[in-house]
Write a structure and sequence with these properties.
alpha+beta, four-stranded antiparallel β-sheet, 3 helices
Length: 97
Protein backbone atom coordinates (compact mmCIF):
# COMPACT_ATOMS: atom_id res chain seq x y z
CA UNK A 1 0.00 0.00 0.00
CA UNK A 2 1.03 3.60 -0.63
CA UNK A 3 0.15 6.68 1.37
CA UNK A 4 0.02 10.02 -0.46
CA UNK A 5 -0.07 13.11 1.77
CA UNK A 6 -0.31 16.70 0.54
CA UNK A 7 -0.44 19.82 2.71
CA UNK A 8 -1.73 23.08 1.26
CA UNK A 9 -1.35 26.73 2.24
CA UNK A 10 -4.26 28.61 0.72
CA UNK A 11 -4.30 32.15 -0.65
CA UNK A 12 -7.70 32.78 0.96
CA UNK A 13 -7.73 31.37 4.48
CA UNK A 14 -11.42 32.08 5.12
CA UNK A 15 -13.51 29.29 6.61
CA UNK A 16 -15.73 29.37 3.52
CA UNK A 17 -12.77 28.78 1.17
CA UNK A 18 -11.28 26.06 3.38
CA UNK A 19 -14.64 24.27 3.54
CA UNK A 20 -15.12 24.52 -0.25
CA UNK A 21 -11.60 23.18 -0.82
CA UNK A 22 -12.22 20.28 1.58
CA UNK A 23 -15.41 19.44 -0.36
CA UNK A 24 -13.53 19.46 -3.67
CA UNK A 25 -10.82 17.17 -2.26
CA UNK A 26 -13.34 14.77 -0.71
CA UNK A 27 -15.33 14.71 -3.96
CA UNK A 28 -12.71 12.29 -5.31
CA UNK A 29 -14.23 9.53 -3.15
CA UNK A 30 -16.14 7.25 -5.50
CA UNK A 31 -14.97 9.16 -8.58
CA UNK A 32 -11.25 8.26 -8.63
CA UNK A 33 -11.13 4.45 -8.67
CA UNK A 34 -7.55 4.09 -7.40
CA UNK A 35 -8.41 5.60 -4.01
CA UNK A 36 -8.76 3.02 -1.21
CA UNK A 37 -9.06 5.60 1.56
CA UNK A 38 -9.22 9.39 1.77
CA UNK A 39 -9.08 11.90 4.61
CA UNK A 40 -9.09 15.68 4.59
CA UNK A 41 -8.14 17.71 7.65
CA UNK A 42 -8.36 21.40 8.45
CA UNK A 43 -5.67 23.05 10.58
CA UNK A 44 -6.85 24.40 13.93
CA UNK A 45 -3.61 25.86 15.35
CA UNK A 46 -3.04 28.53 12.68
CA UNK A 47 0.61 28.89 13.64
CA UNK A 48 3.19 30.44 11.33
CA UNK A 49 4.38 27.01 10.19
CA UNK A 50 0.89 25.50 9.83
CA UNK A 51 -0.62 24.48 6.53
CA UNK A 52 -4.33 25.18 6.09
CA UNK A 53 -5.59 21.85 4.80
CA UNK A 54 -4.20 18.34 4.49
CA UNK A 55 -5.09 15.48 2.16
CA UNK A 56 -4.26 11.85 2.89
CA UNK A 57 -4.97 9.22 0.22
CA UNK A 58 -4.28 5.49 0.46
CA UNK A 59 -3.66 3.54 -2.76
CA UNK A 60 -2.69 -0.04 -3.63
CA UNK A 61 0.79 0.57 -5.04
CA UNK A 62 3.08 2.94 -6.97
CA UNK A 63 1.27 2.22 -10.25
CA UNK A 64 -2.04 3.15 -8.61
CA UNK A 65 -0.43 6.40 -7.43
CA UNK A 66 0.69 7.16 -10.99
CA UNK A 67 -2.78 6.34 -12.32
CA UNK A 68 -4.34 8.55 -9.60
CA UNK A 69 -2.05 11.44 -10.57
CA UNK A 70 -3.30 11.14 -14.17
CA UNK A 71 -6.95 10.37 -13.45
CA UNK A 72 -9.24 12.70 -15.48
CA UNK A 73 -11.39 13.76 -12.50
CA UNK A 74 -8.32 14.36 -10.33
CA UNK A 75 -6.68 16.43 -13.07
CA UNK A 76 -9.66 18.33 -14.49
CA UNK A 77 -11.55 19.08 -11.28
CA UNK A 78 -9.33 18.71 -8.22
CA UNK A 79 -5.92 19.82 -9.50
CA UNK A 80 -7.54 22.69 -11.39
CA UNK A 81 -9.21 23.92 -8.20
CA UNK A 82 -6.12 23.41 -6.05
CA UNK A 83 -3.82 25.25 -8.45
CA UNK A 84 -6.23 28.20 -8.38
CA UNK A 85 -6.55 28.41 -4.57
CA UNK A 86 -3.19 27.28 -3.22
CA UNK A 87 -0.36 29.52 -2.20
CA UNK A 88 2.00 26.55 -1.79
CA UNK A 89 2.00 22.83 -1.11
CA UNK A 90 4.26 20.02 0.02
CA UNK A 91 3.82 16.29 -0.47
CA UNK A 92 5.17 12.94 0.63
CA UNK A 93 4.50 9.49 -0.81
CA UNK A 94 5.57 6.38 1.10
CA UNK A 95 4.92 2.67 1.40
CA UNK A 96 2.86 1.35 4.31
CA UNK A 97 2.29 -2.21 5.55
Amino acid sequence: MVRHIVLFKLKDKSEENINKTAEVLLSMKGKVPQIRGIEVGRDFLHSERSYDIGLTVTLDDAKALDDYQNDPYHCEVVKKHMHAVRESSVAIDYYID
